Amino acid sequence: MKVHLIRPKTDELYAPVKQVYSSFPPPVGLSCIGSEIRDRAEVSIYDGNIREPTLEADIIGLQDWVTTHKEALALAKRAKQQNPNCVTVLGGINASHLAPRILTNHPFVDYVVSGHGEPAMVGLVEGRPLDEVPNLYYREGGSVKSTKQKLVKSPFFDLEQVVEWECDEETPFPISAIRGCIKSAKEGICRYCSLFNERVNIISPEDFWTQIRTLKDKYGLTYFFETGDEFNVGTYPQRLLDARPEDLGDITLRIYTYPEILAQKGVIDTLARLQVRELYMGIETVNQGLLTNAGRQYNAGAVEGILEQMSLVGIRAMMPFMFGLPGETNDTAQENFDFSQRLLERYPETIKMMQYSLVVPIIGSEYFVMASTAKKVREAYEQNGKSLSRDDDFDYQKLTEFFIETFTEADTEFLKSLVIRGKKIAKEKGYLTSTFIGVGE
Prior knowledge:
Blueprint: E1 2-7, H1 28-37, E2 42-47, E3 59-63, H2 69-82, E4 87-91, H3 93-105, E5 111-113, H4 117-126, E6 136-140, E7 143-146, E8 173-175, E9 178-179, H5 182-187, E10 201-202, H6 205-219, E11 223-226, H7 236-243, E12 252-257, H8 259-262, H9 267-273, E13 276-281, H10 288-294, H11 300-313, E14 316-323, H12 330-346, E15 351-358, H13 366-373, H14 375-381, H15 396-407, H16 412-428, E16 432-434
Parallel strand pairs: 1-2, 1-3, 3-4, 4-5, 8-11, 11-12, 12-13, 13-14, 14-15, 15-16
Antiparallel strand pairs: 5-6, 6-7, 9-10
């Protein structure tokens, strides 16, 4: 049996949104799946941003993100046209939230994996009865059915099944030791977040370093990006430090974390000793009213104190600023923008990236629910046959604008101008910059 796992190229709408780094790292999520089924099937993994994928296989697995949805569907349709007997499977965070809609709207998609892909793909490759395959949506008797969720830890993987890949020295190689978000598990999910599974699964510190050693020894990789939504899960960083082999002392990391965690005593020092090179700090805004509404607990003073500590230990920050949170006004947006500029002036060597974006009510988030249930938004968006309750492909540019008009007192064009201005200033000063899925540009 041949299985082709494919990360589609970025959809044309989002193609202008450049990566923060100069190369696309390999599709590690697909490599994890490939490692679990390669003793059961002949597996090939393709990155559509690097090489046109081949569709001559018994099973075609397609990674579906917001930015690749159209291309994933196009590849599934083309695969069925070439070989009606092949099995087409969509998975990924976007597909996880849209599984019933995808199967209802697109007959050329056979199955949708919702959640972790490894147990579902193992079941499909082994030919188990569909109702015994975890994390699966499928059709039966004219209706869409689903199976129980099964959460698994990230398996060991390598890149032996990836047909062609690249990762330059400035691009951190992604690994997934942490699945889920400890903040969401303890305090509830952030209202703008589309996280699918909140429960946290972590591989042991020993397994973490075994995975790192495999990738270093086979491919010479020494700079890694741990992609978990929050790296600081309890004492995990200290446990990693305690378990680190002496010959892996040259390994450096990039992580995700939150200011609420970074402000705790000793956290930044531990990260520095673990050789965290840079971190993506989830801040979004510094207006206290907006933060409370968004379910966040920090303030501007805490952010500056964190950057002060980071400057002393050589960790650099990648910082996102959002405009258009519910309750936003032109004044609160200007306050947020001015704060971002003050940080650039005070911590020029500590900041590496400034991201400026409008808030996008993305599928799976509470903000999408707010948008799709607000009469004003529905009436504005659902024209020419569009539907927020049935469609699986959304015009996030327009949906964002309608969301801002409905739930804020700010002028949309003013917010867009701050996004554009912020990116321009950051770029002129030599900082990395980006905009979330291009909305607002």
